[in-house]
Amino acid sequence: MSDIAVVGGGLAGSLLACVLAQRGERVVLYERRPDPRGGAAERGRSINLALSERGLSALRGVGLDKQVLADALPMRGRMIHPVAGELDFQPYSADGERAINSISRGALNNVLLDAADPAVEIRFEHRLSALDPVSGELTFETPDGEIRARADVILGADGAGSAVRGQLVAHGVTTETLDFLDYGYKELTIPPREGEFALDPGALHIWPRGRSMMIALPNPDRSFTCTLFWPTSGTSAFASLSSPAAIERFFAEHYPDVPPLAPGLVDDYQHNPVGLLGTVRCAPWQYGRVCLVGDAAHAIVPFYGQGANCAFEDVVVLGRCLDRAGGDWARALPLFESSRRADTEAIAQMALANFVEMRDKVASPLFRLGKRVEHALERLAPGHYVSRYELVSFSTTPYDRVRRRVRAQHRALAAAGLGLSAAIAGGIVKARRKP
Ligand code: FAD
User: Fold this and answer.
1) Tens of pLDDT, residues 65-91
2) Complex-level ipTM
3) Whose alpha carbon is nearest atom 30 of ligand 1?
4) Which residues line ligand 1 (CB under 6 A)?
């Protein structure tokens, strides 16, 4: 049995600690925040997120899927809100039945912490400030001052701004690149209307506007959390709305169905922070006894709804690597990095590509036609043609294999003379923008 330190008690860290404790390891989980159970949600992070098959499959492994799904709201498709005209519902799957699930990030984290506790020793208000990757010595800032600890294995699950990654970089072991988008995000709320959902809770709502985009996911309290994506600088950007009147004018012009549903819109806009979005790439993730998992290793932009799903899948893959290495961490950690890297690079690229699709293409008639063609192909050739969305969200096919399979499908369609279908399904044909 090894002494394992998991740094970061967010989604990946708390699941990882739980899985390792179930395997009989001695685990200490260090988290910089106070115990979030019973506390208020953190502002500025997404309040809810879409959980799909990869995340669910990881939760199934520790017997938590049903408990988490009991508080989730299934979303079976996208509901497109044009500036004017009818709403357009686009199912995610060919049979219209498959759903991604809107869940509260805080509630999910609490379920995982409860499941880890007490098999895992959880030390809250411990912020990692230094790490010696060779000796395994860790230094934490706590309310009682600086505390030192030691571990045989150190797993950095401390998110996109990872201090563990920072320490590997500082020791000259790892190099990193952080590619920030010139877009940020701000959360806004659509409260319940007369006690009911103000919009259809069975869909993920999208307002595609080209330069900006808004999405909304339902919450169990019948509110919706909207996320507005917009550039962080320039003339048409978050900072360009500096007065209540300017905010009202902007929403009335671009999102006209929202203000009547969101009485706190101006207040939310003025007080909620703008979060940053980016892709983290670093190499190696693993050095000796230290390894990064989840966002700490490979944070991605949120446009495929896969960051947490991918982080949970990391935990499953790490468990498999430990099995293959017969429980030998020195062999398991390099195996984890080599077997997982191509997949995380694939989803990072697909997530960036999906931003263009969501903020622009989903509104175009050509895109809608493409989706209908895809779903028809899926029904005509079940198991032979499977859409990228289906493979990413409703399967656990490794992301890199998804990318290769989708390319092969498009080549096969083109070779079969279905050039237009292939082009549409592959998103090769550029959506025509409305004037
Ligand atoms: P985190 O959840 O960030 O957890 C890291 C933990 O480490 C935190 O608890 C933090 O307090 C702790 N920590 C940090 N530094 C230290 C330190 N020095 N010492 C100790 N502890 C530390 N993903 C989806 O799958 N579906 C979605 O729909 C989705 N929507 C998103 C929407 C937005 C706007 C954003 C920004 C992200 C979204 N994501 C989504 C991505 C998802 O939130 C992340 O991928 C996921 O939270 C990663 O989990 P993690 O445990 O690796 O990191």
Assistant:
1) 999 999 999 999 999 999 999 999 999
2) 0.99
3) 49
4) 7-13, 30-33, 46, 49-50, 127-128, 157-159, 163, 185, 227, 275, 294-296, 302, 305-309, 311
